[in-house]
From TrEMBL:
GO molecular function: O-acetyltransferase activity
InterPro entries recorded: TBL, TBL_C, TBL_N
Membrane topology, from the record: Single-pass membrane protein
Organism whose genome encodes this protein: Salvia splendens
UniProt domain Trichome birefringence-like N-terminal: residue ranges: 109-163
Protein name per Swiss-Prot or TrEMBL: Protein trichome birefringence-like 35
Length: 449
């Protein structure tokens, strides 16, 4: 089901409308998840927990798991019961660990691209024009949605001890010729994918570019390079009840910590893979439903514990399936949030709303970037260090409190007057405006290809 974006708009207005409604819904569902994060992390939780049944478009339904073999999780999956986590691990991951995954032999990197500072540069930036990118998302198009201070578009990342190669879309396409580049992860990773499309599309003639409708796997194709830039929705990496790209707002997160095939079968043919996973693990405990457990009983585990099991399974896949001469794999570290202004300005209220400049304290690190998670990720990645390149965007993005959409994005729920009168109360301090910070993540990716 390929379609030409432009042509479709002109000739098939109804289908095009449906497509946009589809996208709107998908972003709405992501948004409802983000609200949960907001609520979870809000310091003095004035906000009410949302009534999840209002957000669910489908009646809840339970498989009789005691009768059926596990056929894969979906949004209808429920736990027959829940017990505490038993300490169990995925078998292959355990074996692999016992056989002693190789320790990181850290290559002498000529440059640490990830430490440095932001330099105001309104000559070279932004790298594209928000209103001219046909793939722009209403969740990220801040200027379109009323943001007047455009300073956030003009910052260049300057590593401390070296320079980055200048962004060049044609050179990037040459690297991608005949290849599939796939982003896999959550809505932050989707933002990076959209940034990449906007960075890349302008040099492809309109009749040579096409995109498939938004779904679990969305594919942008550039015919003249026989190349694709794709996004696979897999917020928890492993199989889960939140894998539906549109309807993934679940009351509880249920995952199969030992099952990755459903996703890996879709990504294994890609030549360049860019993974992320983080914020979805920050919303409280998750439930594990092991593949061979026929009782349907779930084990409850902390988000961090669940993420570690998922990372083990993922790293196990990488260790056994990735030939670094044929496939490049990247892991993007956690994307910071700016939910509490007191963190960079002691004693103040509010959040990232109305922030116009990056933080210039080089040691700044916010509480949204969980250090135990970072240490766990580091440990898991060290075992596959010869096969995975880390895009360590956390510190550099920490500085960019000015880069979030705040109120300047599309909100699909009507805003109550009390909220409207208090913009900070509904500001999005999680995603990033485009053009903006994710463009730099992609420039970093460009350095390593
Ligand atoms: C959520 O809404 C449903 C009706 O849509 C209602 O039956 C239920 O009690 C509500 N739950 C809470 C926690 O407010
Ligand atoms: C579910 O499984 C139990 C136990 O095998 C059985 O007694 C019950 O009838 C099943 N329910 C349905 C709806 O199939
Ligand atoms: C860049 O910023 C400087 C200082 O704010 C301003 O004087 C100049 O006009 C700007 N240039 C462009 C091209 O926007
Ligand atoms: C972006 O494109 C719009 C529409 O073509 C144009 O009005 C605007 O000046 C452009 N902005 C920049 C910064 O080039
Ligand atoms: C296009 O790229 C695919 C790999 O993504 C390759 O299998 C195919 O042979 C290529 N086609 C042409 C015409 O080069
Ligand atoms: C990323 O960089 C931070 C310092 O900014 C460091 O503490 C952390 O260990 C790094 N993470 C990984 C996975 O390399």
């Amino acid at each position: 089901m390929q379609q030409r974006w432009q042509k479709k708009k002109k000739h098939f207005p109804l289908i095009s409308l449906l497509f946009f409604v589809f996208i709107a819904f998908s972003i709405f569902w992501s948004e409802s998840n983000i609200r949960v994060i907001h609520q979870h992390q809000a310091r003095n939780g004035q906000k009410q927990r949302q009534n999840a049944s209002l957000l669910s478009s489908t009646p809840s339904h339970s498989f009789n798991l005691s009768n059926k073999p596990p056929v894969g999780l979906d949004k209808f999956t429920t736990c027959a019961s829940t017990v505490r986590y038993s300490g169990r691990r995925a078998v292959s991951a355990v074996l692999w660990e016992e056989s002693g995954g190789r320790r990181a032999v850290s290559e002498v990197e000529s440059c640490d691209f990830f430490s440095g500072k932001w330099i105001f540069d309104n000559v070279s930036y932004p790298l594209y024009n928000e209103s001219q990118c046909p793939y722009m998302s209403d969740q990220l198009a801040c200027h379109k949605h009323g943001r007047q201070d455009l300073g956030y578009q003009f910052w260049r990342w300057q590593p401390r001890n070296c320079n980055m190669k200048r962004w060049d879309a044609v050179e990037m396409w040459d690297k991608l010729r005949g290849k599939r580049l796939m982003f896999v992860g959550d809505s932050l990773n989707r933002g990076q994918w959209i940034s990449m499309l906007c960075l890349m599309e302008s040099v492809i003639p309109r009749d040579k570019q096409s995109i498939t409708p938004n779904s679990e796997l969305t594919i942008f194709r550039a015919e003249n390079y026989n190349a694709t830039i794709e996004f696979l929705w897999a917020p928890l990496l492993v199989e889960s009840n939140s894998d539906d790209a549109v309807d993934h707002r679940m009351n509880e997160r249920i995952l199969r910590p030992d099952a990755i095939l459903r996703h890996s079968s879709r990504w294994e043919q890609a030549d360049i893979l860019v993974f992320n996973s983080y914020l979805w693990w920050r919303q409280g405990p998750v439930k594990l439903l092991w593949s061979n457990d026929e009782s349907g009983a779930c084990e409850e585990i902390t988000g961090l514990g669940g993420m570690e099991l998922a990372m083990e399974t993922w790293a196990d896949w990488v260790a056994s399936h990735v030939d670094p001469l044929k496939k490049k794999v990247f892991f993007v570290t956690m994307s910071p949030t700016h939910l509490g202004k007191y963190e960079w300005e002691a004693g103040s209220e509010g959040n990232c709303y109305n922030e116009k400049k990056p933080i210039d304290d080089e040691r700044y690190w916010g509480t949204g970037s969980d250090l135990p998670t970072m240490r766990m990720v580091e440990k898991r990645l060290a075992r596959v260090s010869s096969k995975v390149t880390v895009l360590n965007i956390t510190q550099l993005s920490e500085y960019r409190k000015d880069g979030h959409p705040t109120i300047y994005r599309k909100f699909w729920e009507p805003l109550e007057p009390e909220k409207k009168s208090n913009p900070a109360s509904y500001s999005d301090c999680i995603h990033w405006c485009l053009p903006g910070v994710p463009d730099v993540w992609n420039e970093l990716l460009f350095q390593f290809l």
